[in-house]
Amino acid sequence: MNYDVVVVGAGPVGSTAARYAANNGASVLLLEEHASIGSPVECTGLLSTRAVSECDVKPSDEFVLNDVRGAFIYSPGGGCLPIDGGKTKAYAVSRKMFDRRLVAMATQAGADILLRAKAVGLETGPTVQTLDVLHKGLRKTITAGVVIGADGVQGKISKMAGLGQVQKVLSGIQVEAPYVSKDNDFVELFPGSPAPGFFAWTVPLDDRISRIGLAIPAGAETPSLGYLNRLLSSNPHVSKQYGGGSLDLVLGGIPLGPLKRTVSEGVMIVGDAAGQVKPTSGGGVYTGAVCAKIAGEVAALAASEGDASSVRLNEYETRWRQKLGRELGIGMKIHEYMGGLNDAELNDLLTSMNTPAILDMITEYGDMDQPSVLIKKLLSPTNSLRMLNVFRAFARTVL
Predict the structure, then answer these.
(1) How far is CA 132 from CA 103, 139, 234, 349, 371, in A?
(2) Interatomic CA distance for residues 282 and 52, integer angstroms
(3) What is the CATH number of the domain that holds 306?
């Protein structure tokens, strides 16, 4: 089995990379270790409108379960900051159906796909890469001009290539359960003690069912399940709306902080495996798709030139960091700042933001994918001194 490009991992990022490599003339193989596409699910399933668009698909009833236009942010003290985007900002989706749509697009572009195929070994070189793969229990050898690792937060390709691992991993847990939402057009967010270091959430699918979850730093003394049980049983807001039981359970890791290098000889790493995830929200489809397009194009051209050296593939590193590097860096600063606030400080912050002028600014400039735009506006000298004082700890980073 010999291909110009082999992509390991058939999630949205891997299938997008495979499609772009095929569209640029490469012979492409897409490997997926699981028996079916989109399963098991390891994602909240809330995608920004930009994320769906970046994957080159239009929203469809095939995978969209609900439209979301805003958020109710509940402070630890019980106050509520209503953020209304004024129009659809995100979609609650079936990740299984969304992933399958993207894989279908990759195969239509000419990519081959191999399910139940796990990469277990990798040898790299300046022109040819050799992958050892277990396919349905049998060992196979696959050669490629370039290998793209899109195998997620627990991916092995980056480690096999000597590129290490991401800076930080959050432990996420989510149930799909009976829940009466205050408004089906709004998600609910709970920063602070409900999920120390990140936040908890509810994502409505309709007026009776929501996805309820949270994420905390991996290795925390209390596991994520303990925090989820506490959220469902003791949170003053969630416990009143929660109907009991669950229809589904999702577990997964959220990688934060990109790899120091995403390129080595013959190999490029993309998506969750590369830490190309928004630190403020944990979403990785938009950022991953942006990087996947670059990776697919660069891989195809490098394979056609017979040059898979790290120098040649560094074009990918340069281009994706030019597009996203600064935003991810600022996002990490915001994540660290917000995660370090205690409940009293969060109450003060959200109270400070709950004014008509600030809410109007959030509506106009708020962006799930580019939070730095709003942060700069909030920290403008024309705003209140109170806001500047609240954000003083990282103001110099983003101004």
Answers:
(1) 23, 7, 49, 52, 41
(2) 16
(3) 3.50.50.60
Partnered with residue 142 across adjacent β-strands are 131
306: helix, strand or coil: coil
The pair of three-digit structure tokens given for residue 236, joined into one six-digit string = 């003053």
CA distance 318 to 121: 27
- CB count within 10 Å of CB 100 equals 19
pTM of the model: 0.93
Q: Mean pLDDT in the chain?
A: 91
pLDDT single digits (tens) 1-39:
899 999 999 999 999 999 999 999 999 999 999 999 988
* Residues 183 and 319 occupy one common structural domain: no
What does the alpha-carbon distance between residue 333 and residue 343 come to, in Å, rounded to a whole number? Answer: 19
Same domain for 172 and 150: no
Residue 73 contacts residue 350 (beta carbons within 8 Å):
yes
- Identify the domain containing residue 380 by its residue range: 337-398
Given the structure tokens 């925390």, which residue do they identify?
220
Range among 37-46, 156-165, 290-299, 342-351 with highest mean pLDDT value: 290-299
3-state SS class at 187: strand
- Inter-residue contact 336 to 398 (CB < 8 Å): no
Task: Report how far residue 125's alpha carbon sits from residue 307's, in angstroms, rounded to the nearest whole number.
Answer: 10
Asked if 244 and 147 sit in the same domain, the reply is no
